[in-house]
What does this fold into?
Amino acid sequence: MSDTMSRPMRFGSNSGQPLTRRDGLAKVTGTATFAADNHPRNLLYAVCLPATIARGRVAHLDVAAAEAHPGVSHVMTPQNRPPLQGDPSEKPTMFSFRIEVLQDDTVRYAGQPIAMVLGETIEAATEGARLLNPRYETMTPRIALDQNEPEALEPGALGRPADVEHGDMQTARNSAAQGIDVTYETAPQYHNAMETHAVVAQWDGDRLILDMPSQALVLSCAGYAHFFGIPAGNVTLRSPFLGGGFGSKAIPTGPQVLAILAARMTGRPVKLMLTRQQMFGPVGHRGATRQRLRLGTDDAAALSFIDHEGVSETSSFDDFLEPAANASQGLYAAQALRSTHRGVRLDVGTPSPMRAPGEASGSAALECAMDEMAEATGLDPLEFRLRNYAETEPGTGKPYSSKALRECYAEGARRFGWSRRPLAPRQMQDADGMLVGWGMGTALFPCPMFAADARATLRADGTALFETSAADMGQGAWTALAQIAADSLGLPIEKIEFRSGNSTLPDGGIAGGSGHTATAGSALDASGRDVIRQLGSMAAADPASPLHGADNATFQARDGRIEVEGDPARGEDLAAILHRAGLEQLEGQGSAFRKPEDAENRAMNAHGAVFAEVKIDPDLCQMRVTRLVGAFAAGRIINPRLAESQLMGGMIWGVSFALHEKAQHDPRTGRIMNADFAGYHIPVNADIRDLEVITIHEDDPYVNALGIKGVGEIGITGTVGAIANAIRHATGRRIRHFPIRIEDLL
Amino acid sequence: MKMFDFIRPASIDEAIAAWRPGAAWLGGGTNLVDLMKTGAAQPDRLIDLGRLPGLDRIETGAEGATRIGARVGNADLARDADFARRFPMVAEALLSGASGQLRNAATVAGNLMQRTRCPYFQNPETACNKRRPGTGCDARGGVGDNYAVLGWSDDCIATHPSDFCVPLAALDAVVEVIGPNGAREIAFADFHHLPGTTPDRETALEPGELILALRLPAAAAEFAGHARYLKLRDRTSFAFATVSAAAALKIEGGIITGARLALGAVAAKPWRAAEAEALLTGHAPDAALFDRAAEAALSDAVPAHDNAWKIPIARRVAARALALAARGTPARMPALPASVFAAEEPAHV
Amino acid sequence: MSLSISFTVNGTRRDLTIDDPRVTLLDLLRERLGLPGTKKGCDRGQCGACTVLVNGRRINSCLTLAATLDGARITTIEGLAQGDALHPVQTAFIENDGFQCGYCTPGQIMSAVGLIAEASAGEDLERIREGMSGNLCRCAAYHGITRAVQQATRRMAEAEQEGTA
It folds into this structure.
């Protein structure tokens, strides 16, 4: 396989083109089928009853009242729940959490399912759940970071150790000419994809068909198979479209397991769709953090040290720490770096990865702290960051696989007009008397690669089929992956049939970590080139081919042909080679790959710089982010149109983080009292005004054969800090918690 | 949602006859159906007013009073050019409420009857004296952003969420109602109740009474030249007010000869600031005067929750609304909804 | 109790007997009439994903009881294109990448069609932003949505002018 791993030359005309979405027509006509749009015959509706307290036990459920309601067919409670074959406390796959599936009557967090009602109609099942009218024995919940002791927890910081230290912190501290010591807090946030978690589950003997949004189709099958004691191959998961995921749809959840169980119990298809309110609890969230940042510089404003201590919440029964302090590890050159993570056990649902887990909240605090340090040194925030630009990865000294951050700073600043920024705060006003502030932040997101496989089938008619169980949750996999696939065979994209979104296809891996295009794309690319390699071998060995005797290593796929590099006249149509060999089709296999030595020896990140303008009413303190410019270097951009949308979406998540999102727990019950879109604010259209994204091209020969880094999450990083820094610049006020609201600026 | 009878009366008489305890009138449904979903409202019977004749008209009589039928849609009223010209801040308030979709469905009478957005009222598992008298008030000691600073009691600290009602209060609207005992009129100031010890009694409507129309007196149109609604909120749009104010002035020869001021989201009813109005009248409009008036409007304010910040912000919103009103009603009405960021002539970006 | 109602959905007359007055228009479309293009995002009028046109006006179908719709004319996302010819708003959403995951898209598009019919925003981006603020998009495709609505407004106005010229 080594030949397929060499750096490819790009000949296709598909990658790099701003194609509109291949699934666009389906999405604008309402024919794109999301999970809950499925409606098999004889369907039963399942409705969850969520706990309205966070700690205690369910003392009573009025099952008789629910059962008596016309149309209610079953009420599932801990008393009668059929057994599961797999222990819900176990973690069947690497991205699993202990789930709540009516094991007992204990309530561990508000929103935990405490019963499930099945009905012939959605109306009947919904009312049945209400009629259960639970009574609780309640205990005082712990819902704030100061309500339990921070402790070291084993899983560390999402793949990294909880504590990391590079350099000699004590010496760096002693040598610093000046320093800051600041603490930032971020609020609990909930993913809230527009499509709530849903499933339509159908059993056929011991085979299970799931229509369910999933960011990790094959992995999810393994998870569900575990609970139901069947081979993973017996589960078919169809997820052609996800109505957003943001990290919350990669793992099995309790309500979905219960709905599948209900389908097995009743022998009928069951549809479950969580309510918006039920999205606040059993399907993960971004835990609140408290981050202490100590920074010091020498006389030349070079960072001596960054010491970043993160405390974040986890549940009482499982471990996930928002790995915020990781953000300080790979960005700014400092003699000494230290990051620590501690967890506080609270009566909340288990947190989970939410778009830029750790990077978002860590960057928010770090970029503010960097501005505070810049201010202490008297330097412009951008100048301060440039003085501390890391040429190699801080701490490890590893070279970067590529890093066009300097270009991002320069181009972003130029487009924004940063050079006109007065250094002191509260200097700018617009014609309406609004205070104007400008702030910036650095964006960074790592470039993970996961495992994925793909299959390419070249057909006699010159078309090709590509297959992998990728997930399109809006990032554009249906389009970008097809572009990569087409290029691997040198075919125009119209000749490509791309099958995806179904677990029976080769494992497309996880749509997460901003690594899906790189991962599934690499597998697709390899599968196509496997076809070309086989065809090339056939042609080179065939005296009837113009390619006879040529070196397969010099072959290129272009315009439906294989040609000899440097001698394009010498070539042959793919279909002709296939035809002469008497083949109806030819299949190739491919897997995602990153050279282990590159993974080991290189630091790999996407980078960016975000510049923000805010306007704030000087008396009324209402804020609006009026301008955002983001410049990002993320390797090769497969589809600039879709990448720009992704980056803009991420930046708006930054607005949301900075100004809006905050779950509010009642201190007595622990229940989230703003668990809906009227109370839990995310930005509306009018919150967003001018938005500009610039991508800086990078050729990165190390991240993967395609040079793709990923753009899904980086947009949030940098943006949150840029907005807070702009608020500081507009008002002179430094707010050290998120979200920042009107009352903070009075 | 609890099961209910669904009645579609064809006349007002039929509607009145269909009412019984536990019944609810259904207008646009944008608030009631939502509350039925959360369980905060559990009517046994819904009486759909959609087929009642004559409730969807906007009429201006010979004396100049404007009568708005109960079922006139919020959006229709705001878009009625003649209405918006005569009562610009009412149109502004209407357009700053909710969303385009909700304004299309919601009716003016329903807007008067909408319930508080207090999260404890909305969620039936909590103690709420408004929803279930005598159970207590979990909002006190709870979380939430929209609590009162005026007129609240130990039993209830909720606020009225309406934008529309704020200028109606300022302009002395009248509510025409009909019920089993015949028709009557209720002055707007008397329509919504402060909680006292009976927060469940939110309005002056007697059981079985139905709103037929709202009336704005001719005198209300005299403020058309200097009238603004200003809404402060946590998002630029589609959010309930943090604080809002409707301010209207009559200015003759450089002197304020009439003033109206009402505040929204500060109390269980739209808060008419009569002391402030008295203070304004007879003086030349200037910033210091508006500050004094705003001070007077909030002089009795006491935080009901950890919302002491709301008092100074309410003062500033009141003063700003007065200043905007003094500057004159914008030429294009309705302008962009009454956001802080709605420049009178919005820039084309 | 059963309620008889008649209305048209996407031009087709439907005579229905509704056995449950609690059924909303949204659930009626999705679960009983086989029209799942209209989406449920919050079920409480707080997100706009369920937007449809009733008698040409945009409303939240999740807060509309089906029983109230006797005689109404309902248009959903499935009824917007004329055969293979997309509505200008649909085309503009594709061209301006006015969506990512696509879940809020039917509601965004129906809302945009309603907004353009209201003729209150024109091509003014700030008014379009305000007018589309009843439709949340968690992917945050607002930049593309705003431009799509602006483009569709312009093209529809141009087409109308050509039609009358």
Q: What stands out?
A: Chain B has a mean pLDDT of 95. The radius of gyration of chain B is 20 Å. Chain B is about 30% helix and 20% strand.
